[in-house]
Design a protein that fits this description.
Largest sheet of chain B: 5 strands, parallel
Shape of chain A: globular
CATH topology of chain B: Rossmann fold
CATH superfamily of chain B: NAD(P)-binding Rossmann-like Domain
Helix content of chain B: 25-40%
CATH topology of the largest domain in chain A: Aspartate Aminotransferase, domain 2
Number of helices of chain B: 5
Number of domains of chain A: 2
Order of helices and strands of chain B: HEHEEEEHEHEH
Oligomer: heterodimer
Number of domains of chain B: 1
Largest interface: A-B, 57 and 46 residues
Radius of gyration of chain B: 16 Å
Strand order of the largest sheet of chain A: 1-7-6-5-4-2-3
Chain lengths: ~425, ~180
Amino acid sequence: MTMADAERIPGFNTLAIHAGAKPDPTTGARATPIYQTTSFVFDDVDHAASLFGLQAFGNIYTRIGNPTCAVLEERVAALEGGTAGLAVASGHAAQVIVMQTLLVPGDEFIASKKLYGGSINQFNHAFKSFGWNVVWADPDDLSSFETAVTPKTKAIFIESIANPGGVVTDIEAIGKIARKANVPLIVDNTLATPYLCKPIEYGADIVVHSLTKFLGGHGNSIGGMIVDAGTFNWSRDKKYPMLCEPRPEYSGIVLHETFGNFAFAIACRVLGLRDLGPALSPFNAFLISTGIETLPLRMQRHSDNALAVATWLTQRPEVAWVSYSGLPSDKYHSLAQKYCPKGCGAVMTVGLKGGYDAGVKLVSNVKLFSHLANIGDTRSLIIHPASTTHKQLSDAQKVQAGAGPDVVRLSIGIEDKEDIIADLELGLTAK
Amino acid sequence: MNHDSYPDAYIRGILNTVKTIAMVGFSPNTARPSYFAFKYLIERGFKVIPINPGHAGKEFLGQTCYAALADVPEPIDMVDIFRAPQFVTPIVEEALKLTPKPQVIWMQLTIRNDEAAKLAEDAGLKVVMDRCPKIEYGRLSSEISWMGINSRTLSSRRAQNLGGGFQRMGLGQGKKEEPSGS
């Protein structure tokens, strides 16, 4: 008997291990096999035609789909409470495919100006060269989202917890603005992960992830994910031609009427991934899926350690301020209590009284923390954004994104918190 | 039956029981959803009889098309309806006049007519609304998981391979161990 037959709704820990990963149908292998193959044989010409015509479910070519990647897709979709997932080569690739599915040149999308610096760059430069025009809004002023809506608006993009400033976004309020404008709300849930926050419950229509961070969790694989919530009516205003018009690529199929509440994920796969090409390698999918099995354990430890570290930092004489929504004094604490009641994740920013030089001194003198440009590893990580990840932004944009010259970003690992704190003390007090 | 949320066992029971399906509102246009479901269900071993007065007498994938349910010369286990909700009640009334009566009335994705459902249920039929049998078969057999779709099923049992091909799965959930054909 399957769990579903028993009409039990499995809990998050169970889904993290089992969703998407039944024993391999051919060999019975219990762990998910790595299907390291480019292609899959057809039974006959008719089977091939059915697969290419989207009339049958199955595998053709790893650029379009792969059974190891499919396990990862179903698992993340289940954890987020969505109808379907699509794994791609990186978080940035996920954003390209989502926007390419929703926008045509000349269209606009509204984005929170408090975003990961890489996303700000992508939206300001690469996307503008495609004619997809970003309009920035301020998550601390919800009316700025409302006034940004025009007839050309096709989507609203926010992060649940913004990297690195720790801004917790009011997903539910912005979801209402998106529904009023009849455009989908896209939420980047990378920093929170569905363990801490489930944006679909608050009105997200599409969730994107950099799997590279906490979902994979071990700093070994780049990957991205698109999750379709199944909530948006793509046919209502006829403004999403990829979904509501007959597609010449597939002999006139209308994807929304054919695939219902997972049509967006299918469109991203058979129009976006197929034609743009940023497929995830099955080996990375295997590593990331394995990482997700321990996501609930890791995220709780990340969050508990981070709160202990943040609390300790607020008492240090070298520290001017700590931005971490888990702290009761933090500006975003009440939003965090609503959206992330179990904890606020691993990432925080710290302002040093000694400014730029103190930041350089800290990153140069820690021994347990790794100085690198990533977050969401089991290991504790540290970076000085002003000189690295956010270097290409203007000074004003740096401050806006929470990455001014005095700011150090920490991604707290799952080591013993006493060791993490001792290492920071070493770095802060070094001569 | 609560038509907002069907237990998997209810849907699985229907798809494991019915053998002959009459598809009302079948379209011979190969890009239309009804053709997708028609072809897929035939490939999974169902006998699917197309019903469309505009194409009566023609054959599609070896199956003769009829103008109306009453014209079908064999017992029908399930009537699968690809028509807008306002056209469903007369179709159900027609189905209830058949001898023997069908066991199941199935209305496709986005189609729901509670009045017609009550008529059928009062006559002892099972009813499914706003679902696609292709998607439900794919979901419960795990085939749909190839496409990254959330099947909302977990199992520590190997999915049943139907045989006759590499990527054809059954609904048995490991009860039968059939060799994968080819």
